C-alpha cells in the first residue's frame, strides 16, 4: 500500500484543514488524546502528525496494537518482562512504554483491551511507573505522551461495563474525530494524486475525468486505506499512462450503494417522488426541487439520484433533461451551473 510516513495529512477539505489546525494546537501540550473514527480514516496518521508537531518529535513514536495480541502477550509487550517470568522469557525485555520514553506511545484499538489490562494501564497512567511481567516491584519511571485510538463507541462500552469509566475519562482529555472519506469527497483528487506519485512518479500517470467521477462517487466504506489500495491495484495491474473508467475496479464503478443500502433506498424514494412531480405533475425543477435542496430538506444524494434518473431517460443529454424537468430551454446553462456548483453534475457519457 502506498504509505505516508511523514505525518502529512493530504487534503484541503474544511474537515482536513480544521483537523490540521487542531493537530498543531494540541501537539504542544502533553494532554492525552483519544482519536476516534471509522476504520482506515487516518487515525494513526493523525497520531503521528501530532507527535511530529510536538516537542517530542525527535524522540520515538511507538505504536501498540491492542487488538492484535492475547492479553498476556500484550501485557509483556507494553510493560516488558523479566527473565524467566514465563516459558520463553530467556532474558529481560523492555516494553513498548519503556521504548517510547520521552516520546509518544500510540495505543491503537484501545477498545479491544481486556478489563484487566485496562486496570494495569490506568495504574501506569496514574503513576508513570512500569511494572514488568514477573518483576516483584515497580521499576523505573517513564515519561510518555499517550495517544489512543478506537473505531468503537467507547462511551457505549462504558455504559455496558466493558470499558472502565475512570480510564475513559483519563484518556479522553482531548477527543479528535476523523471524519469518513465520504463526508469529504473533495479530498479524493488530492489523495489520488499523492498516492499515484508515491507509487510511481516517473510514469506521469493521468486519470480521465470519467475515472475520477467514479472514484468521487463511490462510498469508500474502507475510507482512505481502501482508496490507497484501489490506486495501487490500478497501477500494479499495468494501466497505461492514462487511467480510464475501465481501469477502475468494478466494485467502485458499479457501486450504487451496496454498503449504504438502507439510506439509498430512502434516497431513491425521495428522488422517485420528485421525479414524478416534474414528469407527471409538470412542476418545474426550480419550484419542486431547487428550494428543497437549498433549504437542505433533501440531500445532495437525493439530487444526484434525480439527475441520474433524468439522464437515464434522456440518454445522457442535459438539454433533454432540462426539458424533462420542465424548465425553459434558456435555463439549460443555469441548470448546469447549479449542478456543477453543488457537485451534482454526473458524467453524461455514462448514460449514452
Ligand atoms: N489524509 C490523509 N492523507 C494521506 N494519507 C492518508 C490520509 N489519511 C489516511 N491516509 C493513509 O491511509 C492509510 C490508513 O490510515 P491509518 O492507518 O492512519 O488509518 P486508521 O484510521 O488508523 O485505520 P484503522 O482503524 O483501520 O487502523 C495509511 O496508509 C495512511 O497513511
Ligand atoms: Mg489504525
Outline:
This protein has 352 residues and is an alpha/beta fold.
Please, could you describe this protein's structure?
This protein has 352 residues and is α/β, with parallel strands linked by helices. It has three domains: 14-179, Rossmann fold (3-Layer(aba) Sandwich), CATH 3.40.50; 191-251, Helicase, Ruva Protein, domain 3, CATH 1.10.8; 261-351. The protein has 17 helices and nine strands. It has helices spanning 14-27, 43-52, 71-79, 96-99, 115-127, 154-160, 165-171, 188-199, 209-217, 223-236, 250-253, 261-279, 285-288, 290-294, 300-313, 318-324, 332-341; strands at 33-36, 61-65, 80-81, 93-94, 104-108, 145-150, 174-177, 206-207, 242-243. Strands 2-5-6-1-7 form a five-stranded parallel beta sheet. A two-stranded antiparallel sheet has the order 3-4. The protein has a two-stranded parallel sheet with strand order 8-9. Helix 5 (115-127) links the parallel strand 5 and strand 6. The radius of gyration is 26 Å and the shape is elongated. The protein starts with 13 loop residues before the first helix and ends in an 11-residue tail after the last helix. The structure holds adenosine-5'-triphosphate and magnesium ion (MG).
Report the C-alpha radius of gyration, rounded. 26 Å
Roughly what is the average pLDDT, rounded to an integer?
89
Cofactors, ions and other ligands in the entry:
adenosine-5'-triphosphate, magnesium ion
Strand content: 5-15%
Any guess at the CATH architecture of the largest domain? 3-Layer(aba) Sandwich
Q: Please report the number of helical segments.
A: 17
Main sheet: which strands, in order across?
2-5-6-1-7
* CATH hierarchy, class of the largest domain: Alpha Beta
Shape: elongated
Q: What number of structural domains do the residues give?
A: 3
Helical residue percent?
A: 40-55%
